[in-house]
C-alpha cells in the first residue's frame, strides 16, 4: 500500500536534489508508519534509490563537458541531506536482515549495489575508481567525518591532471575532479558555502581561503593578501613536482611541434603567399564594389599627365563624417589648379570646420587613386605623387622634443620631400610659439612652397598677416574662410600696450555654417570656445 510513496519523481534537470529530498520525506513517513519495517519495504527503497543514483550518473555522463559543476553540486546537496537525517528515529537500525549491523541510514545497506550499478555507466577504470570513492562517501553514514578524504582528494586529482607517459594535462578531467573536491575542502575548513574556497589558476594546486578560516595543521601556507590566504594541502606537495615537470615537458613539446609546423609550412610558402595576395585583392575589390553602390558616391575622373596639376571637387564630403551625419553634413567645393589658383589660405573661427575641410580633400584624393568611388557630386584630378601633412600637436617626451620642435620637424620634412606633383596640407603652422615668431615661420614656409615647389597647398591659419602673401603671388593664392553667423556683443578690455587703450572683442553667440566661402575672417572667436568649455567669465 505504500509503494506509491516510494516512486522516484521525474528529473527536470534543474531541481533534482530537491526532488530527491522530497522523496526522502516520503520514505521517512513510510518507515515511521512501519515501526520496524519489513524486507519487502527495504527492498523497494533499495531498488528505487539505486535506480535514482544510476539515472543521476547517466545524466552526469551526458552533460559532464558543459555543466559538470551543477551536477556535482546537486550530488553534494543530496549527500548533505542524507547525513542530516541519519540521526532521526525513523532511520534507526531495525531488526531487519536487509539493514547493516550498525546504526545508520537505510542506504548504508545498499552501498555495494549502488556502486555496482554506477560502475556500469563509467568510461574507464580511472574514472571508476574516482566515482566509486565518491559514491561510497555519498552513501557512508557516520558522525560527519569524511571517510577516505586523504585517498580521494588531490591524490585522485593528480592522475587526472597529468599523464606521465606523454606529459599531457587532461583539462577535462581536472575540471570534473576540481569541482567534486571543493565540497570536501569546505567540510575540512568548516565553511558552509562552497564558493568561499575557490582553487586558483584553473588547476587546483592551491586553495584560497578567507584569512579568518582555520585549516588543518599540515596545510602549508603559500602566500597571502589582506583578505585571503592560499594553502597547499599535503596531498598536493607530494605530486606538485611532477605537475611542474609535466608542464615543462608540455612546453617543450609544444615548442617542438610549432617549429615542425613552421618547417612544413615553409615548404609551401610561395604557394600560400600567392593565395593570400589573391584573397587580399579579392577582399579589396569586393569592398570597392560595395562602396560604388552608394548613390551619393561618384566615379572620379583623372586627367592626362600632360595637363597641369589640379583638384576639382564639387560638393565634396568627408567620407567618415558623411556616414555618421548622413544628410546633416555640409558639402564644400574645391578648385585648385597649378596654372591658376594653386593655394587656398583658410581662416575662420575655432570649431568652424577648417581642419575637416582640408582632411576631406586629402581623403577624396587618396580614395580616388586607390580606385574607389568618392563622396562628391563630381571629382576631377590628376594623379598625385604624395600627400604631405602637418596637422595636430604632440610632443616627444622620450627624446626631449617639444611640441613646437616636432611641428617644425614635420614642416622641414615637407619642404625637403614635396614636389610640384604633391598635395600639401598644413594646419596652423607656428602656433607653438609667440605670435610674432609663428607668423614669420608660417609666412616663410608658405612663401617657399609657392615660389620654389609650385605645388598645390591647403593652408589653415589664424594669422591674418599670412593672407598678405596674395600680393606676392597674384592669381595663385586665394583667401577663404568657413562661414558663420554671430550676434554682436562687444567686450571692452583695457590694454596698456595698445595705442588706443581699449581692445574690442566680439563676445557674441556664434552659429557655424561650415561652408567654405571666399574672403578672410579677421576673428577666431576664441572666447566662444572658452565659454563652451565652461571657463569662468573674463
From TrEMBL:
GO CC entries: nucleus
One Pfam family, please name it: MutS_V
Asked if NAD is a keyword of the record, the answer is no
DNA mismatch repair proteins mutS family domain: residues covered: 422-438
Q: Name one GO biological process term.
A: mitotic recombination
Determine the domain of life of the protein's source: Eukaryota
What InterPro entries has UniProt attached to this entry? Answer: DNA_mismatch_repair_MutS_C (IPR000432), DNA_mismatch_repair_MutS_core (IPR007696), DNA_mismatch_repair_MutS_sf (IPR036187), MutS (IPR045076), P-loop_NTPase (IPR027417)
Q: Does the keyword Nucleotide-binding apply?
A: yes
- One MF term in GO for this entry? ATP-dependent DNA damage sensor activity
This protein's UniProt keywords: ATP-binding, DNA damage, DNA repair, DNA-binding, Nucleotide-binding
Q: Which SMART domains match?
A: MUTSac, MUTSd
Q: What is this protein called?
A: DNA mismatch repair proteins mutS family domain-containing protein
Amino acid at each position: 500500500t505504500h509503494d506509491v510513496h516510494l516512486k522516484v519523481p521525474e528529473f527536470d534537470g534543474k531541481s533534482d536534489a530537491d526532488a530527491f529530498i522530497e522523496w526522502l520525506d516520503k520514505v521517512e513517513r513510510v518507515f515511521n508508519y512501519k515501526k520496524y519495517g519489513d524486507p519487502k519495504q527495504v527492498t523497494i527503497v533499495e531498488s528505487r534509490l539505486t535506480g535514482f543514483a544510476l539515472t543521476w550518473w547517466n545524466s552526469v555522463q551526458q552533460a559532464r563537458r558543459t555543466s559538470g559543476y551543477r551536477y556535482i553540486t546537486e550530488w553534494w546537496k543530496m549527500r548533505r541531506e542524507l547525513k542530516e537525517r541519519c540521526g532521526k528515529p525513523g532511520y534507526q537500525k531495525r531488526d531487519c536482515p536487509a539493514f547493516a549491523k550498525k546504526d545508520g541510514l537505510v542506504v548504508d545497506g545498499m552501498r555495494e549495489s549502488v556502486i555496482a550499478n554506477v560502475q556500469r555507466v563509467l568510461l574507464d577504470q580511472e574514472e571508476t575508481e574516482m566515482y566509486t570513492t565518491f559514491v561510497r562517501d555519498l552513501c557512508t553514514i557516520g558522525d560527519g567525518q569524511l571517510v577516505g578524504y586523504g585517498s580521494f582528494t588531490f591524490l585522485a586529482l593528480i592522475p587526472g591532471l597529468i599523464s606521465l607517459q606523454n606529459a599531457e594535462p587532461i583539462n577535462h578531467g581536472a575540471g570534473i575532479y576540481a569541482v567534486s573536491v571543493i565540497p570536501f575542502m569546505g567540510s575540512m575548513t568548516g565553511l558552509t558555502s562552497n564558493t568561499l574556497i575557490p582553487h586558483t589558476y584553473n588547476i587546483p594546486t592551491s586553495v584560497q581561503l578567507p584569512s579568518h578560516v582555520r585549516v588543518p595543521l599540515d596545510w602549508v601556507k603559500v602566500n597571502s593578501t589582506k583578505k585571503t590566504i592560499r594553502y597547499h594541502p599535503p596531498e598536493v606537495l607530494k605530486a606538485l613536482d611532477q605537475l611542474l615537470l609535466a608542464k615543462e615537458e608540455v612546453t617543450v613539446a609544444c615548442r617542438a611541434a610549432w617549429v615542425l609546423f613552421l618547417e612544413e609550412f615553409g615548404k609551401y610558402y610561395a604557394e600560400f603567399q600567392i593565395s593570400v595576395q589573391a584573397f587580399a585583392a579579392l577582399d579589396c575589390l569586393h569592398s570597392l564594389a560595395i562602396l560604388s553602390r552608394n548613390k551619393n558616391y561618384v566615379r572620379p575622373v583623372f586627367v592626362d599627365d600632360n595637363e597641369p596639376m589640379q583638384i576639382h571637387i564639387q560638393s565634396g564630403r568627408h567620407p567618415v563624417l558623411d556616414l555618421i551625419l548622413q544628410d546633416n553634413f555640409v558639402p564644400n567645393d574645391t578648385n585648385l589648379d597649378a596654372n591658376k589658383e594653386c593655394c587656398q589660405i583658410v581662416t575662420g573661427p575655432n570649431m568652424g570646420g577648417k581642419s575637416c575641410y582640408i582632411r576631406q580633400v586629402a581623403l577624396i584624393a587618396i580614395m580616388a587613386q586607390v580606385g574607389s568611388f568618392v563622396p562628391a557630386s563630381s571629382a576631377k584630378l590628376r594623379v598625385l605623387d604624395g600627400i604631405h601633412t602637418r596637422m595636430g600637436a604632440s610632443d616627444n617626451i622620450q627624446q626631449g622634443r617639444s611640441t613646437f620642435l616636432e611641428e617644425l620637424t614635420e614642416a622641414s620634412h615637407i619642404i625637403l620631400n614635396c614636389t610640384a606633383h604633391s598635395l600639401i596640407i598644413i594646419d596652423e603652422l607656428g602656433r607653438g610659439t609667440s605670435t610674432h615668431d609663428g607668423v614669420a615661420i608660417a609666412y616663410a614656409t608658405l612663401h617657399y612652397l609657392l615660389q620654389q615647389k609650385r605645388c598645390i597647398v591647403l593652408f589653415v591659419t589664424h594669422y591674418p598677416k599670412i593672407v598678405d602673401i596674395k600680393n606676392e603671388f597674384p592669381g595663385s593664392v586665394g583667401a577663404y574662410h568657413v562661414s558663420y553667423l554671430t550676434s554682436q556683443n562687444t567686450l571692452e578690455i583695457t590694454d596698456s600696450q595698445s595705442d588706443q587703450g581699449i581692445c574690442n572683442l566680439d563676445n557674441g553667440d556664434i552659429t557655424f555654417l561650415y561652408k567654405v566661402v571666399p574672403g578672410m575672417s579677421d576673428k577666431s572667436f576664441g572666447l566662444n570656445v572658452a565659454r563652451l568649455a565652461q571657463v569662468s567669465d573674463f
